[in-house]
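Problem statement: downstream parser choked on a complex file, so we are re-checking the raw output for the flavin mononucleotide run. The parser issue turned out to be on our end (a line-ending mismatch), but while we're here, posting the original submission so the record is complete.
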Amino acid sequence: MAKESTARPFYTVLVLAFVCSALVAGAAVGLRPRQEANHKLDQKKNILRAAGLYKKGGNVDELFTAIETRVIRLSDGSFVPPEKINPAYFSPIKAALDPETSNSLRKDNDPAGLSRLEKFSLVYLVRNQAKVEQVILPIRGKGLWSTMYGYVALNRDLSTINGVTFYQHGETPGLGGEIENKDWQDSWRGKKIYTPVGKPSFQIVKGRVSAASPLKQYQVDGISGATLTMKGVTNLIHFWFGENGFQPFLNRFESQGGIDG
Ligand SMILES: Cc1cc2nc3c(=O)[nH]c(=O)nc-3n(C[C@H](O)[C@H](O)[C@H](O)COP(=O)(O)O)c2cc1C
């Protein structure tokens, strides 16, 4: 009987490893378009949820026709024409990674822990005839373990919250991960972001909001065991509704009577 080469098992393992890695890489590349499509669909669902327009079992793309997506320049809040930047293909998160399309943030200007801020962002408008009924804004910022991504929908007064959703994060399930809890998110409805003089004052308190608190219209109960995540959420709201975030857009939009630009 011929003696088996000692190198043979080695080559067999090598070939097997090569075939398996080619299969895994091929599947990852092949599935990427589907993953991206699912991610976009999930984002749309969350925008609809924040606006209170999501219907279980409804066709998300159809429901989303009620929403107009626009690109804005964060520095002055002006609208950017779709011929210049097409909102269908624009990602603020990708823009924030590119030094050409973003600016670095100084530490003292970066309570949300973003490091870089995109020059342009997306806003979502819900109209009734010409009048805008709701403005939905993308938010993100550092929690305890991760960057948390979500949307806040404002009523036409551009201060009262109509809804919030968080669609991606890596906080601990049952602790910080409870930012996904629908009852908690519902407790944001009707709360205000800004004081009458335009100061972002929304805050998540530790424990329960006191009925006697003079600030209760700006306050939401904290989730227990998640104080650091809650701090992150308060910080990111302050950033995104402050002067480096959407405040220039909201001020400009309000001065135009909420019509257009
Ligand atoms: C395994 C593990 C996971 C944790 N995950 C979170 C979290 O996601 N968010 C958070 O704020 N705190 C988390 N904590 C708790 C924090 O370390 C800290 O104790 C907590 O924020 C204090 O909140 P409390 O004052 O509401 O109890 C975690 C702790 C452990 C041990």
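For whoever reads this later: The chain has a mean pLDDT of 93.
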